[in-house]
Amino acid sequence: MDMFTVVSVEYARNLSPVTLAFVGDAVYSLYVRKTLVLTTDYGTGTLQKLTSSQVSAHGQSGFLEKLLPLFTEDETDIYKRGRNAKKATKSKNASVAEYNRSTGFEAVLGYLYLIGRYERINELLSTDKGDDL
């Protein structure tokens, strides 16, 4: 299985929402890093600080406000499952609500990645992102 192996919608929907969020966290981190590298000329220390501020529960929760109205019914369902999932860990730097919302956000990205909806990921993540990155 290579990193671009696509799974069925049914298979992805049957994964734990926390597992989907695990994948989605990596997807979002890579997107933010790639965007920063291609649009700035900062050193790696600055790039890491900027990435950390975006790929945080607080940063994701804020960005999610722009995305929620754009989610399809299927994406909204995945988001709610991720938001409401029981997690083994707690965030040290975010409220419980922010952490839950960011888990939902990451679950959607993980789901879309696993089913091969890369263009949809790009469509969502490029929404008004110029203000933030």
Question: Per the principal axes of the C-alpha atoms, what is the gross shape?
Answer: globular
Helix content: 55-70%
Please count the helical segments. Answer: 7
For the largest beta-sheet, the strand count, sense and barrel status come to:
none
The poorly predicted ranges are: none
Q: What would your notes on this structure say?
A:
By secondary structure, the protein is an all-alpha fold. It is built from seven helices and no strands. Helix 5 (73-84) crosses helix 6. The longest helix is centred in the first third of the chain and has 23 residues, at 17-39. The protein is globular and about 40 Å long. 29% of the residues are buried. The model has no long low-confidence stretch (mean pLDDT 90).
SSE map:
Elements: H1 9-13, H2 17-39, H3 44-54, H4 57-67, H5 73-84, H6 96-114, H7 118-125
Helix pairs in contact: 2-3, 2-5, 2-6, 4-6, 5-6
In short:
With about 130 residues, this protein is an all-alpha fold. The chain contains seven helices and no strands.
